[in-house]
Design goal:
single chain
Length: 63
């Protein structure tokens, strides 16, 4: 009944990914390549989680 109050987990994960990717970009601009590499790796892990969650959500909707 109150599902519209629940936050979309895909949207939340996408926002976290976007923030991490932006942090990586800023680190690259500052010349900190080690931090850039670490943040990019974290962002890639988040993106993989996002894709898995998106596939699971689509599978639920099609069932």
């Amino acid at each position: 009944m109150f599902n519209f109050f629940k936050r979309d987990p895909l949207k939340k994960l996408r926002e976290q990914y976007d923030a991490k990717a932006e942090q990586a970009m800023l680190a690259q601009r500052k010349g900190d390549m080690r931090l850039f590499a670490d943040l990019t790796a974290e962002a890639e892990e988040m993106w993989e989680q996002y894709q898995k969650l998106q596939e699971a959500t689509q599978a639920e909707k099609s069932s």
